[in-house]
Amino acid sequence: HALDRSQSLFSLLIFRNILFNSPFLHAAADQTWLRLTFTSDLDFLQYIAEMKVQYESEYSKNPNFFCNKRAYTRRPIKERSVNTATAYWKAAQNTAWKILDHANPPSFKKACEVLTKLSDDLPGMGDLSCYLSLADMAESGLISHPTCEDMGPLIAIIDAGAVGGLKDLGYLPRDIQASKEGHQVSTAFLSFYNAIDTTLAQDEKSGMQ
User: Fold this and answer.
1) What pLDDT is stored for residue 209 in this prediction?
2) Contact, 131 vs 123, CB < 8 A?
3) What is the pLDDT of residue 182?
4) Which of 3, 55, 106, 195 has its CA 20 to 30 A from that of 44?
5) Which residues of 71-101 are buried (b: 16+ CB within 10 A; e: fewer)?
6) pLDDT digits over 60-102, tens only?
7) In sequence order, what are the residues at sequence separation of 6 or more whose Cβ sits closer than 8 angstroms to the Cβ of residue 112?
8) CA 32 – CA 112 distance, rounded (Å)
9) CA nearest 3: which of 34, 39, 35, 27?
10) What is the largest CA-CA distance in the chain?
């Protein structure tokens, strides 16, 4: 049956912040028992309990079989765990997400404000996984896609690959501390975007979507 708002959000957050890039997800990719939608934390934890039996050998050798603590970073994020599901279920039920019930999807920026306020109570969610969760919401149609103006500050806060790319292309100095120079990063990103936007033909842009 169709998921309600809380269940949809919960499933999205579980994928991005627990299951993403886990050995389990790779092992079960083509299996009929793979599930990525859940109706509650209890539903998810019951499913994991069943999968621990299904993958008993793999799980016995790797306690992080269902949640890769290095999904986004070389250093393990110790807070990432299957046991954080209850915190994510609680966050998904927060009344702040009523903004998703409006006829028109809320802006990326507004959804970012909501998730940022909740992130302190979401174990294992860092700046990058927060952004990727929002990107998943946009791809799912729950919220609007980010504008160029939205992206600049986010790139500065995350201070990862996008900042490195802007440095490599000469839009930012090598020694900049991006997280402390959000305005400069935003300006650099807009300059890069405008350069690409005017250079690429429309069919090339369409091919990138």
Assistant:
1) 66
2) no
3) 87
4) 106
5) bbeeeebeebbbebbebbbebbeeeebebbe
6) 999 999 999 999 888 889 999 999 999 999 999 999 999 998 8
7) 130, 134, 150, 154
8) 34
9) 39
10) 55
Could you tell me the CA-to-CA distances from 108 to 111, 143, 155 in Å, in that order?
5, 6, 14
41-55 residue pLDDT tens: 999 999 999 999 999
**Residue 55 DSSP one-character state:** T
Whole-number Å distance between alpha carbons of 128 and 119: 12
Tokens 């990432």 locate to 80
Give the span between the Cα atoms of 67 and 83, in whole angstroms.
Answer: 10
DSSP letters for 91-155: HHT-GGGGGGGSSSPPPHHHHHHHHHHHGGGSTT--HHHHHHHHHHHHHTTSSPPPPHHHHHHHH
Amino acid 107 reads: S
Q: In which residue are the tokens 């039996």 written?
A: 53
Helix/strand/coil for 49: helix
Give the C-alpha separation, 163 to 184, whole Å: 11
Question: pLDDT grade, residue 105 (50/70/90)?
Answer: very high
Residue given tokens 């409006």 in the structure block: 102
Residue that is written with structure tokens 């886990």 in the block: 22
pLDDT at 119: 85
Dist. CA 186–CA 152, nearest whole Å: 4
